[in-house]
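Q: Predict the assembly, please.
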Amino acid sequence: MGSTCEMNAAVSVWRRLPLFVLASSLCLCLSRAEDSAMENIVTEKKAEESHRQDSADLLIFILLLTLTILTIWLFKHRRFRFLHETGLAMIYGLLVGVVLRYAIHVPNNMNNVTLSCNVNASPATLLMNVSGKFYEYTLKGEIGANEVNDIQDNEMLRKVTFDPEVFFNILLPPIIFHAGYSLKRRHFFRNLGSILVYAFVGTVVSCFIIGLLMYGCVTLMKQIGQLGGDFFFTDCLFFGAIVSATDPVTVLAIFNELHVDSDLYALLFGESVLNDAVAVVLSSSIVAYQPEGDNTHTFEAMAMLKSFGIFLGVFSGSFALGVATGVVTALVTKFTKLRDLPLLETALFFLMSWSTFLLAEACGFTGVVAVLFCGMTQAHYTFNNLSPESQDRTKQLFELLNFLAENFIFSYMGLTLFTFQNHVFNPIFIVGAFLAVFLGRAANIYPLSFLLNLGRKNKISPNFQHMMMFAGLRGAMTFALSIRDTATYARQMMFSTTLLVVFFTVWICGGGTTQMLSCQKIRVGVDADQENTIGPDGVECRSTKHESAWPFRIWYNFDHNYLKPILTHSGPPLTATLPTCCGPLARCLTSPQAYENEGQLKDDDSDLILNDGDINLTYGDITVSTDATGAHTSGTAVGGVAVNSDEALDRELAFGDHELVIRGTRLVLPMDDSEPPLPVDSHRHRHKYETMS
Amino acid sequence: MGSTCEMNAAVSVWRRLPLFVLASSLCLCLSRAEDSAMENIVTEKKAEESHRQDSADLLIFILLLTLTILTIWLFKHRRFRFLHETGLAMIYGLLVGVVLRYAIHVPNNMNNVTLSCNVNASPATLLMNVSGKFYEYTLKGEIGANEVNDIQDNEMLRKVTFDPEVFFNILLPPIIFHAGYSLKRRHFFRNLGSILVYAFVGTVVSCFIIGLLMYGCVTLMKQIGQLGGDFFFTDCLFFGAIVSATDPVTVLAIFNELHVDSDLYALLFGESVLNDAVAVVLSSSIVAYQPEGDNTHTFEAMAMLKSFGIFLGVFSGSFALGVATGVVTALVTKFTKLRDLPLLETALFFLMSWSTFLLAEACGFTGVVAVLFCGMTQAHYTFNNLSPESQDRTKQLFELLNFLAENFIFSYMGLTLFTFQNHVFNPIFIVGAFLAVFLGRAANIYPLSFLLNLGRKNKISPNFQHMMMFAGLRGAMTFALSIRDTATYARQMMFSTTLLVVFFTVWICGGGTTQMLSCQKIRVGVDADQENTIGPDGVECRSTKHESAWPFRIWYNFDHNYLKPILTHSGPPLTATLPTCCGPLARCLTSPQAYENEGQLKDDDSDLILNDGDINLTYGDITVSTDATGAHTSGTAVGGVAVNSDEALDRELAFGDHELVIRGTRLVLPMDDSEPPLPVDSHRHRHKYETMS
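A: Predicted assembly structure:
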């Protein structure tokens, strides 16, 4: 067999290069070429050339992003909401893709050194003995035979096609972490039950629905003879898994702008964040199902169970890891006075959060999932221990990373539609896919909403359901999952189809959000506070504020009485909440602040208030229970009259402004803190009771 | 000849991996292995294993940094100044290096597939045909024969040794940019002349002194027969160039803490920032001098001139590029209302600054140098156009990047002392190097200070000179330059020696800074404002405030009257400063704010005040000149009485606090803006006159 050596260092070097170090890493591998070029001037020249070439190519991307930024500014300046920045990035990406594909023709400046060599394996690293000197080569991956033939033609295209793992390991983590870190926790937890159902049950349902439909579609294609390669049921399921990850970034941006009902926002955001995680693990466990070696793609109970076990194991493992590192960070930031030095604090926060990803990958779990839950933990606990400056710094840092990564992914999506070499566009498959995606989303939203409404008193109204149905955009995660492996024919067809699905949903559904909102008569400009009292479907919501939130309520009490005091400076002293037996432990864990600092306390939770605008509801409830336990309520304006939660709440909520809210919490909580250990149980009982009624 | 193929994907993969994407990029190249592993399960297993292994290895680094951060906090908490964070990072790096070298023994889990193959070149990219499938390999570089023999032993070590270009292309740029962006501009420009002399003349002098001394040392070694390989004069010069880049980060940190005289601070910081740039370009042009192919390392006038031309060309080119992109960013931020959206603004700023690096690399200039001047331009112009939030964001972002990169480099330095494979420690060379470094620094500081003092009335006092001599630490830049190429025997010896020089200077000189300050009786706790009036050597400074600053003064007027109005919203309207002929141009360039915004104006320059604490001197001068031109000074508290600059100044400066300063500027400058075009010339004349006297 023959193995071709080229002098061109840059071929496909883009593959494995992230946005931030593209140019850099380029030089990196070239530099080595320069070393060897001590005795090989040709290589050196080539290396320099292609290094410059690659820097120039990267400049294209950067200028693309710059252009996107400027255009976004214009749009926001003009209140132009039909095209979101991501959609815009895709369009610019498309344009550049067209130019690269058709306009630019790179002259073939490679003199290939051909040498024969009988190789019987494709090792990851190759040591080559050249006149006594050893050179090391690293496997970059397989290249289609056609590419080898006309390599000079598509060299340019292959250069701007870089390794799909970049998305998983550089671009997605900041996006996912940011999602977790900026989660509107209050509303998220209020709708926790529904969100979990949508995310887990819903994703699995839609995965299997889509998988089955696509299998039908594929068998049909086989009959017609439209199918050019293998396409097994597991492939269909895999496709179902990857297109089940929704990413309504466009919709949520508009929701934010228009202040759409924040329960709807929480449902959509929470679902989209979690189903990304579910989809990742689901797809990997589906891949794990495939019996390697033999191609008997039949149903096997054992393999099925194995996949299920993998799903549970990987998901729970990643979850545990993410939470663990978050907790560690919280403890470190709590028990060191690091908050005096915001720079160190921010650096520590960044490093710890990043180590989550590495730890998960090192343990064989999914880094992206771990990062998500780490972000949520950091937001809920660590954030309260950070100095105000670090709170801004971390928020802004990850906001920036998220922005850059997201727009890069979307512009790359546009680019890759033209630059990807092995597209397989099959009309039948595409039509089937669109249909399946639609039905899969429907089978996720409507039945589950019906079931949930049986339990929820704060019903998910039909127009909400339609909106959620409509907001089932596919985005970065779907793309990353589909481009991750395009080796086989089936995967290539999936990838091409997925691209179209993403384009369609982002442009059409994303662009039509405002129209959809208006035609669904969904109230916009809702003040988060009022929305608690009046809610989407009028009076009913008021009477059902408690029941709809009961998982949140139980969780909140545990969190507020035990976790927050342990992990942050806020909450009641553990000495008050823990049983007396573990007094010493409680004393050493409780931070001195917890005893005397109302101001501190207010600070800690005011970030929730500022984030969510209506944490006060919670305090309202706590007030109630503490009153009921006979805790002295004298001298507290809100608490004093809060014998019945609702009245107090309404009175409190009637004023929409935060000043009052914060004052309210400050007045209520100290009393909640100075609560003796005894009533805590009745405290919890009461809540159970409340939820029963 | 034989070429050995191994199944181990991770060998040396660390080489080309940056801090931030280490783990990521690891998976990147592995992922390709996984693709090919569709038909090669062994490879897949290996790839997964080594992916996990590499994630774990990276975790070591991250935990190292985390540990460093916590320890730094302890030190700062305890006011412990003998060990700077960088020195600490080095120590931790050393410890981990020792552990990796001696404690950990990685079992040899590689089954080498040996296959014979006659290769006659070391191409940068290798296409390999394995049973019809093409696999692509990228050159990682040369490997010592000894490493090939006992490859399984030092696999671990080679894994934690990554590509030196990482420093140049990922870690140095943020550091250098931050240096330029956080430059104390006011003092920098006041001592511009001296700084330039130290940076350019001084670096070249010390480079040649060290080069000559080392050449003597090397010839001596030849005689004794201590030299194990070639060592040419150009190598000696190269060594001189790389160790001439000072990096007193430790010293400056202490200066900041102790508020040491800010002229001394400016001299040291300015010199160290600029001589990094000079050293980079100098070393590259020395390398360019070497006549490739034939080893006649004799003196050639032509080659010498060529190198000199390269030096000038590359330096000026990089300078121009850096300034250009800075100016573009300034114009974009000025003429768009991007400041409404801080996130976009920050992203744009980041992308533009980064594109400088790429542009320079693409044009064949030095990215690091370009980034430095870009940073200075951004700080001086763009910064004023940014929204306050973006000002914080950009500052904090680059502060963080700088912190992480710097500590990573230093901890890697410690690590590499044990993990680097080809150390060549030669006692004679090392002793000679230390001597040469000392003498080179001396030959830089003392003679130049003497010459400068002839021009300066604000003399650089002997104790300042000793301090500058003492503060000639070598750091990140020296290390990056020396590790960039360790192919030849000479370079390896240089690298090992450089490491020791860095360790010594950072630990000993860095640690002894406070003692040095006290034994040199250099006043600490200087309020930047008072220091203007009293200065290091008492009365003299006062009377010479003007003369010593004349380059700054001329530059300031041009900048304030033309550049700032064009590039920022501040400064006098161009319609006032430009000759009437270019009225239309002036009108369209002048931002509306420039006409009416005192507040704006104050904002723009107050950042200088907040950065430097004493820009008011400048305004004081402006006040004088404007008064002298007969501009009505009524209604301005400071300006009104400022007929003689010094009295006004002293009265102004007597109060140290910023409130007054800012108020002062606000009162003074509007008048300076409403200055008619005519007086400007007399304005400049006056300055010339002043400087003559």
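The mean pLDDT of chain B is 71. Chain B is about 70% helix and 5% strand.
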